[in-house]
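User: Batch of two.

Assistant: Item 1 of 2:
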Amino acid sequence: MTYRFEAISDVHAADFKAMLNEPHVGEWWGEDDYEWRLIQEGEASGESRGFSVLHGDTYFGYVQVWIPNWDPAHLDEEPWQADMPEGSRGIDITLAGVALGHGARIIRAFCEKLFAEGIPRITIDPDAENHRAIKAYQKAGFRTFDERYKDSHSVILMELFPQWLNPPT
């Protein structure tokens, strides 16, 4: 199955907001207008680039790539980002109900896109209780390298390098 990553725009705002109101998404993300505003601010500042995930005309979800250490004040909240090597990027992803079962393939396809752009390392920081997401990230090739506490809960720090996508045989 081929997935497209289309630059986020108002065209898919309603799809994005509807997805955030799905129970399996809403428990991990905030209120839809608030999250939409954060995405727009990240795009405007250059801190992040967001993409709608599509297959044909079907909206599967949202994925973004962000730059660690963009705002030094943010390091108070997530100090682990200070240890990320130059050129590294973080990603966030959320998928609509129609995407269930496609998660690892979508994540892998997006990471392949980033590696083709020259990104040397990708990290993601799921909530430790988000077992569905962690399993999908592992299936896509991510490996755990640490666990940290954020806002009184634990996050699992996971990383992916290009060579892990196609290990030597």
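Item 2 of 2:
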Amino acid sequence: MKVHLVVINTVIGGDEHTVEGYIKRVSQLQPDLIAISCMSPHWYPLEPYLQAVDVNFSQTPVLIGGYQPILSPEQTIAHPAVDYICVGDGEIPTATLIQRLRGEGEGIVPGLWEKSPSGEIIKSAPVLTDDLSKMPLPDYTIYEEKGSLHGLGLSMFGPKKLFILPVMTGRGCPYRCTYCCNTPLLEMWRGKGKYIRKYEPERLIDELCQLRDRYGVDYFEFWDELFLANMKFAYHFLELYKKHINLPFSINSRVEKMDEKFCYTAKEAGCHTIWFGIESGSEHYRIKNIGRKMTNEQIIIAAENARQVGIQCLTFNIIGMPFETREHMLETLEINKTIRPEFFFFWPYIPLRGTPLYDVAKKAGLLLEQAVGNYIEGAIKGKLKLKVHEGGVTETEFKEICSLMQQFQQENNRLAL
């Protein structure tokens, strides 16, 4: 069996990433199965590609995995091009499906929904991989071009002159932010298994050593939903990382976890940047509407703790959420001006199906038809992703706020090694 990766990257652009270019590349492979991983914000931009797949590969089964089918299974399986969707962790269901397609075994595939020739949807429950020690670590060779990973644009935020490789130490986040897909996932797995999962530290360190040496890695980005979901793991892992890896790295954190002890330990291990979400600078809005319980004082102290030991900060911020006022958004800008992160990042709120804040927006009639799209482009063009509504902002006000935040980015952002 051979597995090929055909990337769709509209940010990079070029003919090969157009619909026609994608179909041409897939045609050259003559696939027996087309498997696509899709996040919810990318579903509508993916549709033209799926329509072309339906026309050109009508006899080839199509499997969709990722957050999109987990959060929106009915919407995803309804697409004419789609034959299967994965509604949980994908490793075991995908392997089982391949066995079925090869004539090895019969019956439904646990963890998948299947569309029969008659259009009937055959459903099975999600599969949770609650012990990562039983799973192989990710295979990076599929991304190689002539034996290298350089030049693929894998990092969004790190120092531009270094080769940065994204990696993960585990899966899951214990927090329940109302805008985040993690909240419905926590509910899905309630009582069904261990949702917060980590790889074995020693095994992971060995893998990082191999990746470092094979690809000439200069810097690791840990893309876990929350690197600090398990503090015992974090301290043990950082001790091993300091001893065996000796490369700068960045992590995704929460300000509640960024005390003096952790920031010092992380810096000693090589931490270059800590990413954390502020989302809204208004304490009142943040706590009441989006389930983020931290105070502005905690945000300021966390940023100072990082700065004291020489760790740079990157903040994530959302604007244009349901019933968020102009004043709320200006508070977001002001707290970022107060802490002056080395990298300030913002985007318009995107309503993700299955999340509590999506339900709020839907109930209030705020959803736009096919509003979910390129969130980075939305910030640049100042486009709201919700209908203008009482208690929110006008399109003019939103565009003004986006302009002010873009100006702050230009004047402030200074992430460097």
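The chain is about 40% helix and 15% strand.
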